[in-house]
Write a structure and sequence with these properties.
Number of helices: 10
Largest sheet: 9 strands, antiparallel
Helix content: 25-40%
Order of helices and strands: HEHEEEHHHEEEEHHEEHEHH
CATH superfamily: Catalase core domain
Structural class: alpha+beta
CATH architecture: Beta Barrel
Strand order of the largest sheet: 4-3-2-1-10-9-7-6-11
Radius of gyration: 20 Å
């Protein structure tokens, strides 16, 4: 990433902090999180799609971070949960997969995200955003309006183990023969999908979803199936707000078993930044500009919460890149 991309990432992070608050030393988004250990095993179909090391059929160790509410909502669990999986590959490298309950992102580009966040800032006098401006912004962008509408309709989680997660972006999968296909990832829970209202979830204590998952793990592993939804001709692979037509082929490429809780100390990574652009041979990034921007946004966020941003911010102002 170049200095302009990091400058944009910094602007986006600053705007997020203006919306939901900044808490030094903590994540602002998905702040409540716990780590779990597990194993991923690919299906025979996976190696026909990609030559990636974790798609060849041998069990691969993984760590999983489940998370939910921001620190701005300490009263109870939030409606927004996530599942970030790190695959530890045989050559000592790792690759990440970050997934959410939503199927589409809100905007098409980082610049559009910046514009929406700016428009949606609360008015200093009323303490509320100007909904007429927000409405005009959405009306001019039907795909963005559709994605925002889906998010508003999303119910709250009953359990981390009973939530379907989606990686939002398209990736390019290449096999040993050099054949390539674009696809989107989906995690499907063995226990089936169940939801509840946000009001019901907020009656529970903040640690409820984690304790519910850990009670399940005390009885048996929690399983998910990894499915690839294959793009068809003409399907947009560079726009995470655009849905693909119903009925696209779906291929099961692996199974995840979460086995037990773990810790950052055991993992040996005190920061543990999951990066959706950290791919491996056989899996490539699409031309999705939101996907490309996420690395910089996460790196800026890590610098903020670890106290490493002060000097790096000055470097950005001089046009340099704070991350080398």
């Amino acid at each position: 990433m170049n200095s302009q991309q990091y400058r944009l990432a910094s602007q986006l992070v600053d705007l997020l902090h203006r919306h939901i608050g900044f808490y030094p030393g903590h994540r602002s988004v998905h702040a409540q999180g716990r780590y779990y250990a597990g194993v991923f095993t690919a299906t025979p179909e996976a190696r026909r799609i990609s030559r990636a090391a974790h798609f060849q059929g041998q069990p691969v160790p993984v760590t999983i971070r489940h998370s939910n509410s921001p620190l701005a909502n300490p009263v109870g669990p939030a409606d927004s949960v996530s599942m970030a999986v790190r695959f530890y590959l045989p050559d000592g490298t790792a690759t990440d997969l970050i997934a959410l309950p939503i199927t589409l992102f809100f905007t098409r580009t980082p610049e559009e995200t910046l514009e929406l966040l700016t428009i949606a800032l609360p008015d200093p006098e009323t303490g509320k955003p100007d909904m007429e401006k927000v409405g005009r912004f959405l009306a001019e962008r039907p795909s963005v309006m559709h994605a925002v509408g889906l998010r508003k309709q999303l119910p709250a989680a009953v359990s981390f183990a009973r939530t379907a997660y989606h990686a939002l972006h398209a990736f390019r999968f290449v096999n040993d023969a050099g054949d390539a296909v674009y696809a989107r990832y989906h995690w499907e829970p063995d226990a089936g999908v169940a939801t509840q209202t946000l009001e019901e979830l907020r009656k529970e204590k903040p640690s409820y979803l984690f304790e519910e998952l850990e009670e399940r793990l005390s009885q048996a592993p929690v399983g998910f199936t990894l499915v690839l939804e294959l793009a068809g001709d003409g399907d947009p692979t560079d726009d995470p707000s655009a849905p693909w037509p119903e009925g696209r082929p779906r291929i099961t490429v692996g199974r995840l078993e979460i086995t037990r809780p773990t810790t950052l100390e055991e993992i040996g990574d005190p920061v543990m930044m999951h990066d959706p652009t950290r791919v491996t041979d056989g899996i490539e990034l699409s031309d999705d500009p939101i996907l490309a921007a996420r690395r910089g946004i996460y790196e800026v966020s890590v610098a903020h919460r670890t106290g490493g941003w002060k000097g790096r911010s000055a470097l950005l102002q001089r046009g340099g890149c704070p991350f080398g």
